[in-house]
Amino acid sequence: MSSSSLALDLREEILRLKRERNAVILAHNYQIGVIQDLADFVGDSLGLSYHAQDTDADVIAFCGVHFMAETAKILNPTKTVILPDREAGCSLEQSCPATALESYLKEHADRNYYVIAYINCSAGVKALADVICTSGNAIRIVEQAPEDRPILFVPDANLGAWVMENCDRKMDLWQGACYVHVEFTRNSIQKIKDEYPEAKVVAHPECTTAVRLMADEVCSTEKMITYCRDAEARDIIVVTEGGMLHRLRKEVPGKNLIAGPTENCACADCRYMKMNTLEKLHACLETLEPQIEIPENIRSRAEAAVVRMLEQSK
Ligand code: 13P
Ligand code: SF4
Q1: Is-contact 84 10, C-beta < 8 A?
Q2: In 10 A of CB 269, how many CB atoms?
Q3: Is 91 in the pocket of ligand 2 (CB under 6 A)?
Q4: pTM of this prediction?
Q5: What would be the CATH architecture of the domain defined by 92-179+299-312?
Q6: Does ligand 1 lie within 6 Å of residue 239's CB atom?
Q7: Residue nearest (by alpha carbon) to ligand 2 atom 1
Q8: Are residues 195 and 132 in contact, defined by beta-carbon separation less than 8 angstroms?
Q9: What's the 92 CA to ligand 2 centre distance in angstroms?
Q10: Is 159 in the pocket of ligand 2 (CB under 6 A)?
Q11: Distance separating alpha carbons of residues 263 and 10, to the nearest angstrom
């Protein structure tokens, strides 16, 4: 049997198990193409959170990274939430352990910080936050922060800096970064711009300021779809994780969508996002493992911060 017919059988098996389990498959825009193609919903962190909140399925198979599946569990404590690979983490999440944030807040208790946590963090960090934000609503959420309290923004310093450039609030920034997006440099983007002099550049706000300054638009992965569809330019350089190009090329045909290169690679891959495979998705639907579990005292506090975000971004 050829490998493509094996993949076809596996896809059919996944869909059969999905029906049997009354499961929904949610996938982030950075997942491999075959997973995106059989998911019920593909989107950015904000869209995925809304879908996780709305679903009436019994099982949520979350094809993304751990903090995303955890957010689905925070919103759905009675549902079974599974992630194909338990090790699919995130460098931003790792840059801000809950214990470190807790100590920092204790040390600076006199500041009475209003804590805004980018969704790329653990449930423990969400439980310490006043509100969560995603790249799709960060400016909106920061603008709604109480004016009489200083803001601590965790964990992404690049996203935080971009928000400050776009609204009149000052914030103290936790010094975390996405290991994928900081790999784009002015030099790597200039080289591809030289090849396509007419191209527009759209970049994710997790990129460094130096790279964001070269972009015609900075936005979340979901808004990249609208930007590429509406832009008059035919050539568009997309400066984010390479999985994004799959959905973009499907939904915006007829344009030349070019993956932004790093110094070493023609296209940037997040090793965590790419840990999920069809085989692991099949296995987790079969065994309902690995499951996301969160202690209730943490989950309920994290839920308050996530729900506040969903309300404030309507
Ligand atoms: P989006 O919410 O824009 O999809 O970003 C998620 C992410 O992990 C970016 O690296
Ligand atoms: Fe985390 Fe960066 Fe991977 Fe997004 S691309 S999941 S921020 S490591």
Answers
A1: no
A2: 16
A3: yes
A4: 0.95
A5: 3-Layer(aba) Sandwich (3.40)
A6: no
A7: 90
A8: no
A9: 7
A10: no
A11: 36
Query: 225-280 pLDDT, tens per residue?
Result: 999 999 999 999 999 999 999 999 999 999 999 999 999 999 999 999 999 999 99
Hey, what are 286's tokens? 């079969």
Tokens 């800096």 belong to residue: 161
Instruction: Give the number of other Cβ atoms within 10 Å of residue 140's Cβ.
Output: 15
CATH superfamily name and code, 3-88+273-293: NadA-like (3.40.50.10800)
Give the pLDDT of residue 314.
Answer: 81
> Domain locations in the chain?
3-88+273-293, 92-179+299-312, 181-259
As a CATH number, domain 181-259 is 3.40.50.10800
What percent of the chain has pLDDT above 90?
96
Mean pLDDT for the stretch of residues 73-99: 97
Quote the mean pLDDT of the chain: 96
The count of residues in the chain is 314
For the record, the structure tokens of 111 come out as 């500041």
Question: What one-character-per-residue DSSP string does the chain give?
Answer: --HHHHHHHHHHHHHHHHHHHTEEEEEETTS-HHHHHH-SEEE-HHHHHHHHHH---SEEEEES-HHHHHHHHHH-TTSEEE-S-TT---HHHHTS-HHHHHHHHHHTGGG--EEEEESSS-HHHHHH-SEEE-TTTHHHHHHTS-TTS-EEEESBHHHHHHHHHHSS--EEE--B--TTGGG--HHHHHHHHHHSTT-EEEE-TTS-HHHHTT-SEE--HHHHHHHHHH-S-SEEEEES-TTHHHHHHHHSTTSEEEEPP-SS-SS---TTGGG--HHHHHHHHHH--SBP---HHHHHHHHHHHHHHHHHT-
The answer to whether 115 and 154 are in contact (CB under 8 A) is yes
